[in-house]
Write a structure and sequence with these properties.
Order of helices and strands: HHHEHE
Helix content: 40-55%
Number of strands: 2
Distance between the termini: 32 Å
Radius of gyration: 16 Å
Number of helices: 4
Strand content: 5-15%
Shape: extended
Structural class: alpha+beta
Oligomer: single chain
Strand order of the largest sheet: 1-2
Amino acid sequence: MSFNKKIVDTTSNLFYNKLADDFTSYSIKQVKYNNSVDNIIIEYLDNPNSWLDIGCGDGLRLLNIFRKLDYIPDKVICLE
C-alpha cells in the first residue's frame, strides 16, 4: 500500500483556523453544554496528581473546572 504524501486532510486545520478568531463567542454560546460536560468529568475525578488537557483552546474552561474543585493537580499539561 502506497501513501501519497501530497494528499493532506486539512479539514480539522481549516475548522480550527476559522474557529480561533471567534473562539470566545462560540464558547459562550455553548456554556450550558460545556458546564454539563465539565460537571460529569468532575464527578469521575479522584484527586489526580497530573492532568493532560488535549484541545484546551484558550484554557478558560480548564480554569473554570479548577474553580469547582477542592484541589488543583500538581502538574497540568495543556495541548492545543
